[in-house]
Amino acid sequence: MNHFVSRRTVGVLLAMAAAVPLTALAQGGPIKIGAVVSATGPASFLGDPQQKTLAMYVDQINAAGGVLGRKLELVLYDDASDANKANAFARRLIMQDEVDVIIGPSTTGSTMAMVPQIEAAKVPMVSLAAASVIVEPVRPWVFKMPHSDRMAAQKVLDDMKKRGVTQFALLSDTGGFGKSGRTETLKLAEAMGLKVVEDQQYGEKDTDMTPQLTRIKSSSAQAIFVFGTGQAPAIVARNYQQLALKQPLYTSHGQASTEFVRIAGKASEGIRMPSPALLVAQQLPSNDPQRPVSTAYVSTYEGNYKSDVSTFGGYAHDALLMVTDAIKRAGGTDKEKVRAALEKTSGFIGVSGIYRMSASDHMGLDTSAFRMIEIQNAAFKEVR
Question: Could you give the 3-state DSSP secondary structure of residue 113?
Fold first, then answer.
């Protein structure tokens, strides 16, 4: 079984064990943060920055004295974008590693595979995946950080209406994220009086979407909305350019990263998508409450890893800081108290939005957490 535990974290833990064993024991030992991410495989564009972010901030928190006088111990596994592996790692984190809380996994499929064990064992989990189904219906022990597919669809369809679009084409992938996004988009379109004139799908690993786009080109669609993750939407963008399509092209928040721009190249120009404030951190007004936390994360991440920050790593940033905040408010790692503290989180300013959790809302965000952005000259610009 393949798994990943950060070597850097192991080094930190060994140093801690040598330096402060008696103090740690006296205070109850380290706080064990379990994590499952897709550091490799098709969803590595999600999991790689998440893995790096968690390791970096665990180190930073420990260097500042830990949480409630206790160090953090990160136990992180790579599910290689495989839901079955995620399920096995959930069992290991609960039964063998005896973690206090779990962050992740990266994808909707892996999250839903882990949920039954999480609920049965009553361990708080903060997912880094996006689909609404993760928290609808509300499950007592399951929370999530990313904006929902419904919110993304709402933001896109609102922008379409502002541009005078009355009918559009939907192109979604057949994975969990794409299926959920398609369902939410179709429901919203009907409610908003927008007509979906083409409803096309593609496989997550498909390498050519020309047939679907050719049908869309001959339709009456005034805009195109791509709902998916991974590299496929970048292929859609290139095929769109090759076919010389003129309708405005939108993607979901699954493409809110510089990696998408890199893969799509010039074909990404003019594409619009909903995104957290993070991608336009330096463009935020000085009085925007998200500006300080967003610019700090950008500086820290890019300074440590010499690579561009991504919104996916931002979800891990918010998850870890929210979890540690909940542990502080709970006064320790009692799982029910931490779960209750997470549920009472209100006004927590993250790079992904300002979270307001409740007993009926385990995501805590609304559409105001999204900014509509457009790719201009290979950079993200907020559409105002």
Answer: helix
The CATH H-level superfamily of 7-147+293-365 is Response regulator (3.40.50.2300)
Q: Which of 272, 30, 259, 278 is nearest to 145 (CA)?
A: 278
Q: Which of 128, 38, 60 is nearest to 303 (CA)?
A: 60
Sheet holding 224-227, edge to edge: 195-202, 167-173, 224-227, 249-251, 272-275, 371-376, 379-382
CB 93, CB 111: distance < 8 Å = no
Question: Could you read off the pLDDT of 5-42 as tens digits, one per residue?
Answer: 444 444 443 444 444 443 333 457 999 999 999 999 98
- For residues 307 and 298, what is the distance between their CA atoms, to the nearest angstrom? 10
Topology of the domain covering 149-275: Rossmann fold (3.40.50)
Q: List the one residue out of 311, 179, 297, 206 whose CA is nearest residue 258.
A: 311
Q: Is the distance from CB of 322 to CB of 348 less than 8 angstroms?
A: yes
Region(s) of the chain under CATH 3.40.50.2300: 7-147+293-365, 149-275
C-alpha to C-alpha distance for 373 and 79, rounded to whole angstroms: 31
Rounded alpha-carbon distances, angstroms, from residue 263 to 40, 45, 236, 324: 18, 12, 11, 35
Residue-wise pLDDT tens digits, 324-355: 999 999 999 999 999 999 999 999 999 999 99
Q: Which residues pair with 133 in a beta bridge?
A: none
Indicate the pTM of the whole model.
0.86
Q: Do 95 and 123 touch, CB atoms closer than 8 A?
A: no
* Paired strand residues for 346: 356
Cβ(43)–Cβ(85) under 8 Å?
A: no
Burial class (CB in 10 A: 0-12, 13-18, 19+), 308: middle
In the block, tokens 């897709």 appear at 38
Q: Alpha-carbon distance 37 to 40, whole Å? A: 9
Residues 6+ apart with CB under 8 A from 285: 291
